[in-house]
Each structure stands twice: as structure tokens, then as C-alpha cells.
Amino acid sequence: EVHKLNQQLEEKNGEIQQMINQPPYEKEREILRLQKTLAEKEKAQATSDVLCRSLTDETHQLQRKLASTAEMCQHLAKCLEEKQRKEKQNSDDQIPTERSNQVFLQLLESSLQALVCNLQDENRMLKQKVAHV
């Protein structure tokens, strides 16, 4: 390990000596190249920071949307339960009520499936953006 480190140190010293022995115009050219590289990396970092902030904001927005959707679903489920209780009390109209409950459940299920699909698509897009960043 020490031998490896000494060898690396010698290589770095050799690079430093080469830089010192270069003519001034080559040193200036190297400095300019390094400054340009630094500026590009700073720009890339700034872009990355903006994208990360944007993704974070979008994630929070999606979490709020999901929470409100879950709350709405719970509310609809409670309404359905109340409606079923009321309809059980009125046994005269039980058969048409069961049909309307089935229709309501199908509508609820299809809307939930649509919401899940939308959220999955948005999640996939976020993952792609994160991978890109």
C-alpha cells in the first residue's frame, strides 16, 4: 500500500514538473481549459440542482394528490355504506338498489383504476427524470 502511494506521489510530482517546464503559453492554455471544464461542471451542477428541486416539488404535489384521492375514496365508501344501510331498511326497493349499488361500485372501481394508472404513469416519469438527473 505504501509502495503504491509512493509510486502515485512520484507520478504526480512528474506531472507537476512537466507543468513547470512547459512554456508559459501552454500553461495559460491548460489554465483556460481547466477553467472551462470547471464552468461546465458548475453549470451541470446548477442544472441538476434545479431538476432535483423540480422533482421534489412534483413528488410533494403527487403525494398531496394521492392523499386527497384516498380521502375521497374513503368518503365515497362511507357514503355507499350509509346508502346500503338505508336501502336495507327499505326492503321494498332492494333489487333495484342492488343494481344501483353494483353500478356505483363499478364506477368507483373504474375511477380508482384510472387514478392508479395516472399515478403509475407519473411515478414512471419521475423515475425517468431521476435517472436522467
Automatic annotation (TrEMBL):
BP-aspect Gene Ontology terms: cellular response to lipopolysaccharide; positive regulation of canonical NF-kappaB signal transduction; regulation of transcription by RNA polymerase II; toll-like receptor 2 signaling pathway; toll-like receptor 3 signaling pathway
GO cellular component terms given for this protein: cytoplasm
Coiled coil listed as a keyword: yes
Keywords linked to the UniProt accession: Coiled coil
The keyword Coiled coil belongs to this UniProt entry's keyword annotation: yes
Top-rank taxon, per record: Eukaryota
Stated name of the protein: TNIP2 protein
Lineage, highest ranks first: Eukaryota, Metazoa, Chordata, Craniata, Vertebrata
